[in-house]
Write a structure and sequence with these properties.
Blueprint lengths: L4 E3 L13 H8 L16 E2 L2 H30 L1 E4 L13 E5 L16 H15 L6 E5 L16 H10 L9 H12 L4 E7 L3 H4 L12 E7 L10 E8 L10 E9 L5 E9 L4 E8 L4 E8 L5 E10 L8 E8 L3 E6 L8 H5 L10 E6 L4 H5 L5 E5 H5 L6 H8 L3 E5 L19 E8 L16 E4 L11 E2 L2 E2 L4 E2 L2 E7 L16 E7 L4 E8 L2 E6 L16 H10 L8 E5 L12 E9 L4 E4 L10 E7 L10 E8 L22 E6 L6 H5 L5 E3 L1 H19 L7 E2 L1
Parallel strand pairs: 4-5, 4-6, 6-7, 7-33, 15-16, 15-17, 17-18, 18-27, 28-32
Antiparallel strand pairs: 1-3, 2-35, 3-34, 8-9, 9-12, 10-11, 10-13, 13-14, 19-24, 20-23, 20-25, 21-22, 25-26, 26-27, 29-30, 29-31, 31-32
Helix pairs in contact: 1-2, 2-13, 3-4
Length: 719
């Protein structure tokens, strides 16, 4: 083979000596001359010597036709290919070749007409390309998703065995590929000297259908796309659109909420099973019906048993595409957290006891701590999990509540209640605007006479409102909030306040408060809302037996812990990404470290700018600071990575052009459905298959052999 012709099935070339069989048969079966004595020659015809010469020539032509027939058949079976790249400047027989393999999640699906994945077919085709190249041709490999587990050689090498080893190391990922970058990198590697880039991919439109942002022309580079057909997907395609721990301050022995949001991008509804597993070995399964084009939320409660980093792994079973069905999340659990009570604890009734039944926080991992109003700003620097303040103190804070507002906006929680000991019915103050709620006068409550049943209390009951809100997730059982009868003797009516210029339209958005509990007549007495990243829960009654019977209800402690350690929808120290992205932390430090806890990801340390992508669903911790390697870095963030939802889409490029190639000279060929890799390579654009010409020539040789071998009429001259 040379640089212009390659052979896809070189084993048939070893059979070419069989073309000499007709010569062997001719020599073995040639008639031997014998001398015979006749009495007279009168009965013989005299043969013209010229006819004997013609017969010998015909025999030689017949022999050549038979040899050509055998040789052409063998050459046709060897499937020679004529390389048409010779007209490109700078390209020669030893020009470098780069093979780009699409290892994105869409390549996990089965190839059309094959019983193997598209990635397996791509790797097999790459092996065929390598073995078909002329000896001495340098080969480089590249993938569309960077994968530390498959560190393919970026520099061209002549070592075929090394290339084959790297091909075997390529495994599927859960990520979307960066097609334009992969092509641009390969073209830059080819450079001005010229070369060929083979791309093996399903050409999913989301990845390959976009022009590169900054195309760089490489006139001497030729790109050959080998399109791998996809088996049609039947059924719904459900993928994770979010999978993370949403409890902002996970605590030991406290419920931690893991939320998985899924969406069905398919045209048919799907009944799926969502499986979860945590680091404690606890597993859970839940079946969910997801309509075509719809989405659902699955909440799972886990409980960390110790201080430190924990993880949750989640998977989807039962849909049509499995490449985006994995997700993982990590979170950091603390063994103690402080709830600051502004002023004396006695002002809060039973609230401090519900927060911390034992003063040391041994049972609930929460410690109630009294802080003077003048010392609040300093206490906030220690990052308490929550702050409790009375309405009177909130209106009279030394700095107007600015430091408290910043604390809440950064992810803290605030609980506002009336002073249980104060007889004042109207505190007369003005709460900060960021609190988004106002309180009326404290009144003694009683039901109208016509509503009082003989022997029953006159105090009205308080009941949950808008029970679908995340605020009630800890108390929700089988779709209903577990709430025992609670009566209120004294309370003030609360009024949620929308931000300036924003009308309350019923949507749950940042900085908007919602009524979560109300009296029988509909008056709001418990309001919950967001301010920045934090949450505010405001109560119109004190948590004291003189005000309400709530402290005697079985759900009282759970409600209080929701107020001080729940009710938010974001992990304050978490990084959420799709596979294929970099878990880059918000830090100014140069050195960072990736510590994996679950999933197929490699530990790494180095500079922030060099951080690798996470190619598969995984979870772990990113630490910053020069001391990160010993586990004591300056800061730490958990990261959660899920499979790419877009990889299940079934739109693929079908035309002769690929947008991701930009201005590069390129052609597209499709591996035939159900065909072999060699057959597919025989249809590479830019190469001409010589099988058909060989077949036509063999047919011509067969016809010639038939004509030359046909009996000739006798002829001669009588003596």
């Amino acid at each position: 083979m040379n640089g212009l012709v390659t052979v896809l099935s070189p084993s048939f070339l070893w059979l070419l000596p069989l073309a000499g069989l007709p010569v062997l048969f001719h020599l073995l079966m040639r008639r031997k001359q014998r001398r015979m004595v006749f009495s007279t020659l009168m009965f013989f015809r005299r043969v013209d010597p010229r006819l004997s010469s013609k017969r010998k020539l015909r025999e030689l032509l017949l022999l050549a036709a038979r040899m050509a027939l055998v040789a052409l058949v063998l050459l046709g079976l060897a499937r020679p290919m004529m390389n048409l790249f010779g007209g490109i400047p700078g390209l020669s027989s030893n020009a470098p070749v780069t093979i780009v393999i699409d290892n994105s999640a869409s390549m996990r699906a089965e190839a059309a007409g094959e019983k193997r994945s598209k990635l397996d077919l791509a790797v097999a085709a790459a092996r065929n390309i390598v073995t078909s190249l002329p000896g001495g041709t340098p080969v480089a490999l590249s993938v569309t998703v960077d994968d530390p587990k498959a560190a393919v050689p970026t520099e061209a090498t002549n070592d075929r065995s090394r290339v084959m080893e790297f091909l075997e190391a390529i495994v599927p990922t859960d990520a979307a590929g960066n097609a334009a970058t992969a092509i641009a990198t390969a073209a830059k590697r080819v450079g001005a000297g010229g070369g060929v880039i083979h791309v093996l991919s399903d050409l999913q439109a989301d990845e390959w259908g976009h022009e590169p942002a900054t195309p760089e022309p490489q006139p001497n580079a030729r790109v050959v796309f080998h399109r791998i057909p996809s088996e049609p997907v039947k059924g719904g395609d459900v993928a994770f659109t979010r999978a993370s721990v949403v409890t902002p301050w996970p605590l030991v022995a406290q419920p931690v909420l893991f939320r998985a949001e899924v969406a069905n991008a398919g045209d048919e509804p799907a009944r799926i099973e969502v499986r979860t597993e945590d680091d404690g070995g606890r597993t859970m399964s839940r079946y969910v019906e997801v309509a075509a084009g719809g989405h659902e939320t699955v909440d799972v409660t886990v409980e960390p048993g110790s201080k430190g980093t924990h993880w949750v792994r989640c998977s989807i079973e039962g849909d049509a595409f499995t490449g985006n069905n994995q997700a993982a999340a990590a979170y950091e659990a603390a063994d103690r957290a402080t709830v600051c009570f502004v002023g004396p604890l006695e002002s809060y009734g039973a609230l401090p006891v519900a927060v911390s039944p034992t003063a040391d926080g041994a049972t609930a991992a929460l410690v109630a701590e009294s802080v003077e109003p003048t010392a609040l700003e300093g206490a906030l620097t220690k990052a308490p999990v929550a702050v409790a303040v009375t309405w009177q103190q909130l209106a009279a804070l030394p700095d107007g509540g600015d430091s408290l507002g910043r604390y809440v906006a950064d992810g803290g929680r605030l609980v506002v209640v009336p002073d249980a000991r104060s007889p004042v019915t109207d505190f007369g103050g003005r709460v900060p605007e960021w609190a988004r709620v106002s309180m009326g006068r404290v009144e003694a409550l009683s039901l109208p006479d016509e509503q009082v049943v003989t022997g029953s209390p006159r105090e009205p009951q308080v009941s949950p409102a808008e029970t679908s809100l995340p605020f009630w997730s800890r108390l929700r059982v089988a779709g209903r909030v577990a709430w025992a009868p609670v009566r209120v003797a004294r309370a003030a009516t609360l009024q949620p306040v929308a931000p300036s210029g924003q009308a309350r339209d019923g949507r749950i958005t940042a900085d908007v408060s919602r009524v979560v509990a109300e009296l029988e007549d509909g008056r709001p007495v418990l309001v919950h809302g967001h301010h920045g990243k934090g949450a505010i829960t405001a109560s119109g009654f004190a948590f004291d037996p003189a005000w309400t019977t709530l402290s005697q209800a079985p759900h009282f402690v759970v409600l209080v812990h929701t107020m001080v350690a729940g009710g938010l929808d974001e992990n304050r120290d978490g990084i959420e990404i799709e596979a294929g992205a970099v878990p880059r932390p918000p830090t100014t430090d140069d050195s960072v470290e990736i510590v994996p806890f679950v999933g197929d990801v490699v530990a790494w340390s180095g500079q922030v700018g060099d951080m690798p992508v996470v190619p598969r669903a995984a979870a772990g911790v990113v630490r910053s600071g020069s001391s990160a390697s010993d586990g004591s870095g300056n800061e730490a963030w958990t990261f959660s990575a899920r499979g790419s939802a877009a990889e299940g889409r079934t739109t693929f490029l079908e035309g002769p052009k690929v947008a991701a190639a930009g201005s590069l000279n390129h052609v597209v060929s499709t591996l035939p459905a159900g065909g072999t890799v060699a057959a597919g390579l025989g249809r590479i654009g830019g190469e001409a298959g010589l099988y058909l010409p060989m077949l036509l020539l063999a047919t011509a040789a067969l016809v010639a052999e038939g004509l030359l071998g046909a009996p000739r009429p006798a002829g001669g001259v009588r003596r």
